[in-house]
Amino acid sequence: MRPHVCPWWGGYFIDNRLRRLLHKPEEILGPYVRSGMTAMDVGCGMGFFAIAMARLVGPAGRVIAVDLQQKMLDVLRKRAAKAGVGDRIDTRRCQANALEVAEPVDFALAFYSAHEVPDLPRLLGEIHECLRPGGRFLVVEPVGHVSAADFQNLLAMAEDVGLAQDDRPRIRLSRAAVLVKE
Ligand SMILES: C[S@@+](CC[C@H](N)C(=O)[O-])C[C@H]1O[C@@H](n2cnc3c(N)ncnc32)[C@H](O)[C@@H]1O
């Protein structure tokens, strides 16, 4: 069965001021994203994390924000421009089973998006391909949608493609892991 994809208008429910009470993007990303990095946000939605990433990479860095839905990317572009970081973010529309990001990245994020991707091993393989050696991948899934067993499965698939577990950060209402390309 094809996984359910968050409809574009659903972006307004998960990307708003109230969510900041639950998830503080700069705090969540701060340990991994440094000035000058190239960072990628997979399933970026309306930019809740991509805009914070753009602040953290600074003017010398770059963010590649990838999503299946053009409407998500259109809202992200407007919000990024308003936040003054539009010039640091490349938005890319992808296919359900192909990110097609060719350039190397130092950090990748998939926040509440991996369970919507039909071919998870393929996505993990693509993220592994993009990451520079030593690069980190933070994957975060919602507890309500992804069971502990399914998250363990994801970690096993990640290990199979060469992404080793580095940390298990605590993020509210979420299952999270930091994986590293060795
Ligand atoms: C629940 S939203 C999360 C958005 C954002 N990461 C956040 O935390 O606010 C999931 C996002 O993943 C995107 N998505 C779903 N399937 C995808 C795929 N195969 N490739 C890339 N993005 C996908 C959806 O369009 C949606 O924007």
Word description of this protein:
The chain has six helices and seven strands; from the N terminus they run ααβαβαββαβαββ. It is globular and about 40 Å long. Strands 3-2-1-4-5-7-6 form a seven-stranded mixed sheet, with helices on both faces. It is 30% helix and 26% strand. The protein has one domain: Rossmann fold (3-Layer(aba) Sandwich), CATH 3.40.50. With 182 residues, the protein is of the alpha/beta class. The structure holds S-adenosylmethionine. S-adenosylmethionine (SAM) binds at residues 5-6, 14-15, 42-45, 48-49, 66-69, 72, 94, 96, 111-113, 116-117.
Task: Kindly list the characteristics that best describe this protein.
binds S-adenosylmethionine, Rossmann fold, alpha/beta, globular, 182 residues, 26% strand, 7-stranded mixed sheet, 7 strands, 6 helices
Short description:
With 182 residues, the chain is of the alpha/beta class. 30% of the residues lie in helices and 26% in strands. A hairpin with a 6-residue loop joins strand 6 and strand 7.
